[in-house]
Amino acid sequence: MPYTLPLSVGLKRARWKVKIHENERLEPPHITIYKKNRTWRYSLRDKEFLDNGDSWKQIDNGVKDVIQNRDNWECFKKEWNKMHPGNPV
Known about the structure:
By secondary structure, the protein is α+β, with helices and mostly antiparallel strands. The chain contains 3 helices and 4 strands.
């Protein structure tokens, strides 16, 4: 089951989501950020976007702040390692 970061009502209504999926064990550890049908993959190791052309400029500041919150960042690493023990952060 994927891990979904809890977001504020306003961000949810704007159709933002942040997830870690269980079927990505062979990929570099990352979170996936969603806005409607658009996705961004952000590395948990390097703190960089995995896909060319993606940047924080494309993402709501509220989403960025929630992702970069220290407690949430530690939670991302813990959840990734729990789901993908053979490919830890």
